[in-house]
Specification:
Elements: E1 2-5, E2 13-17, H1 21-32, E3 36-40, H2 71-78, E4 86-88, H3 94-105, H4 109-137, E5 144-151, H5 154-159, H6 161-169, E6 175-178, H7 179-185, E7 197-206, H8 209-222, E8 226-228, E9 233-239, E10 242-247, E11 250-254, E12 256-259, H9 265-269, E13 278-289, E14 300-303, E15 308-313, E16 316-325, H10 334-347, E17 358-367, E18 373-376, E19 382-386, H11 392-407
Parallel strand pairs: 1-11, 2-3, 2-12, 3-8, 4-16, 5-14, 12-19
Antiparallel strand pairs: 5-7, 6-7, 9-10, 10-11, 13-16, 13-17, 14-15, 15-16, 18-19
Helix pairs in contact: 1-8, 1-11, 4-11
Length: about 425
């Protein structure tokens, strides 16, 4: 077995496993701290798996757990609904049912509040860091300001009060708008159907996550970060003061390793004694070319009923949502696609060529409590940055900076309570 050693040591030689937005952001802050960094990715470029199908939503207002109070009832109702935000693949899979029981238990109101606070700490911190990086490097990743959470009924409007209170506690800037004010805020909704109101978040709203990740990759290459593509890590093996990565019959040695490998992380970490309730949820996107710019939305939109987001990404509209539980293949569920297109036609029927949209599905790795896992694993010099779920981009930079601070022996600027491996030990 041949051993490969990373050259040009500065402080530490660190390998990041995973070339998605989490891995690339982690590499950025580690390189900025002066470490010699390499990124190992099994695909041929960065952002080719979950990041490729990112919703485009980039807002603290969207960084909330999916498992809201009453989730058990919503999942069961969705089994008999042809237009549901959740699809349950009800085949017999004990591991899926165990995970779902644990996940739905996290929707209990006090747990939901605690998880929201933890996610919001990272999302707010990420927003500050993104603004600094964007200004410093003059990045343009097709970003648009503003997010509107649309409410179809008075029932939804009334149910929003506890969420508003929680957002206020977390310091998230937002404003409740009535029907008329929503249509004024987003003129493209002027001709839309029934609307009870909306929640407006004026800060960062949407952008092109794939483009952002590739721009950050170019910056990293300028900093000397090495990228090893088409390289599948099959094992992480601590060896004294170093860590060996088994890749295609070779061993890559480093002083430390960061596992940001998405769904593959649980299998890589299990031999190290870390058993995580990480489950891959299948999600969907539809992307269509804008045809009528005057009736296309300028800001991002979230449909509260169907939990489908709509965002302008340059000359395209990206629809994203639908959580399919239990599906391990990459086939399209017709019900999920119908729901995406229904929501688009409800709000912006003439904005884009939805009938010729391109579809994508992929697996979003999610921990049962939906809170990211960041920091030391307990195994020598092995760290993690995983489990960010559907709000990953909104938390990515904050999580990466926290991770880099831990590796560098600095005190993070964010409270780590509930974010570390300690909650699984």
């Amino acid at each position: 077995m041949r051993t490969i050693v990373i050259q040009q040591q500065t402080q530490k030689q660190i390998v990041v496993i995973g070339g998605g937005v989490m891995g690339v952001c982690s590499a950025y802050f580690l390189a900025e701290a002066g470490h010699q960094v390499a990124v190992v990715e099994q695909r041929s470029n960065v952002a080719e798996q979950s990041t490729l199908g990112n919703s485009g939503i980039l807002s603290t207002g969207a960084a909330l757990p999916w498992s809201v109070p009453g989730m058990r009832r919503k999942i069961l109702a969705g089994m008999f609904n042809q237009e549901a935000p959740n699809v349950l693949n009800a085949r017999f899979d004990p591991s899926l049912w165990r995970w779902m029981r644990r996940w739905m238990a996290e929707s209990e109101i006090q747990r939901f509040r605690s998880h929201t606070h933890q996610m919001q700490r990272l999302a707010s911190y990420s927003q500050e860091l993104l603004e600094q990086i964007q200004q410093h490097f003059q990045l343009d990743f097709e970003q648009n300001l503003g997010l509107l959470r649309l409410l179809r009924s008075e029932t939804e409007l009334a149910a929003l009060a506890p969420v508003q209170e929680l957002l206020t506690e977390c310091g998230v800037v937002h404003k409740l708008l009535d029907n008329a004010a929503v249509r004024l805020q987003e003129p493209a909704l002027a001709g839309a159907g029934k609307l009870a109101g909306g929640l407006y978040f004026p800060d960062l709203g949407s952008g092109n996550c794939t483009l952002f990740t590739k721009q950050l990759k170019a910056i990293l290459q300028g900093l000397g970060v090495q990228f090893h593509f088409d390289s599948l890590v099959t094992a992480i093996v601590p060896q004294g003061d170093q860590v060996g990565l088994h890749i295609d019959g070779n061993v890559l040695m480093a002083d430390a390793v960061v596992c940001a490998a998405g769904s593959a992380s649980a299998q890589l970490l299990r031999p190290l004694g870390l058993r995580l309730p990480l489950h891959a949820i299948k999600t969907y996107t539809a992307t269509a070319a804008v045809k009528n710019y005057e009736v296309a939305p300028q800001m991002a939109v979230l449909d509260d009923t169907y939990q489908v987001t709509m965002a302008r990404i340059g000359a395209r509209m990206r629809l994203a949502g639908i959580a399919e539980f239990g599906a391990q293949d990459m086939s399209f569920d017709d019900k999920a696609l119908r729901t995406l297109l229904k929501v688009a036609h409800d709000w912006f029927p003439d904005a884009a060529n939805f009938n010729s949209a391109s579809f994508w599905c992929g697996h979003t790795p999610m921990l049962a409590d939906e809170v990211p896992l960041i920091g030391h694993t307990g195994a020598s010099n092995v760290f993690v940055n995983i489990g960010h779920g559907g709000s990953g981009w909104s938390m990515a930079l904050g999580a990466a900076k926290v991770l880099a601070d831990q590796i560098c022996g600095r005190v993070p600027e964010v409270d780590l309570d509930g974010l570390t491996v300690a909650r699984y030990r």
